[in-house]
Here is the input.
Amino acid sequence: MTGRFVLQNVKTINGIAVDIILENGKIIEIVPPGTGIGDKIIDYKQKVFVSSGWIDLHVHAFPELDPYGDDVDEIGYKTGVTTVIDAGSTGADQISDLVSSYKNSKTNVFAFLNISRIGLKRIDELSDTSWLDEKELKKAISQYGDFIVGLKARISKSVVGPNGIEPLKIARKFSADTGLPLMVHIGSGPPDIREVLNLLEQQDIITHYLNGKANNLFDEKGEPLPEFNKAIERGVHLDVGHGTASFSFPTAEVAKKRDIRFNTISTDIYRGNRLNGPVYSMANVLTKFLYLGYPLKEVIDAVTVNAAVWLRKPELGRISVGDIGNLTLFSIEDESTLLQDSEGEKRMAEKRVVVKGVVINGEFNEC
Here is the structure.
């Protein structure tokens, strides 16, 4: 649906009812509930929330990759997510193919460039340092600078092989030379997580920070590692990155108890964990954080305001007259829902997030 239309009787995250009027792709008015005038009126009867469009900071949306690939609209606007950031599916060798694959997509897309030129063609892409080619990396950035928002380094044992911490040291140099921050995947060691933390700087992202692996961010007593606290103090950004193997309910419960809170909630979604779980969708992941006891506003800010600020695109995280319409419409339903983490742990939630619709670049779609 395009033209002039009204999202009538929707609630903001603060519980205020409004009508939002859109025309020619833009928000043109925000008026009291029931007063909006348009060619088409969609009345939500104050049962549906509206937020700025959800942003998923960690997805894998290069459709030709297996297993870590998917079609962008299947994990994007069809699930209420208006902007996705591909988290290093491709390096310099295939970044042009990644860009081309989105030409006919509706969802807004950006990407982290894998520091390995081969990207996820192999899952040990940092096991050979000759693939860490700064010349080719800089060439890719010069060609696709508007698309690339940062650099991705997967620093876990299965990826780095015998190279330990060395790929992250090289990534740190790439970051300094290009001015782009790092998103660092953490997982099984070696390298030891302390070595990883000591190399991270302000604006860098730790993704998978709630994983339950032995090499995680908390000690045996559940206290955050000193190096972890120092990284947070330096302004390192904490991202969930749920994924197939990287979200643990026990770790998340420890983090909440210790007040180690997320900056952004992301899915690390791709075809396998979308269809077969445990991710399924952004709404399912957000439901887990409501179950954990986080306020709705904090959960939604993590996929709107906070993500937009990190991207330095504040317009993506607000609902303002004059902006292009990117909005997510959702409800909180009183329904018992069985939730599962990445390690098979299960929890029963009494409420769940249900996406009702999305406005993507001014066009309304039901979900």
Remarks:
- The first strand starts at residue 5 and ends at 11.
- Residues 9 and 45 are 5 Å apart (CA to CA).
- The chain has a mean pLDDT of 97.
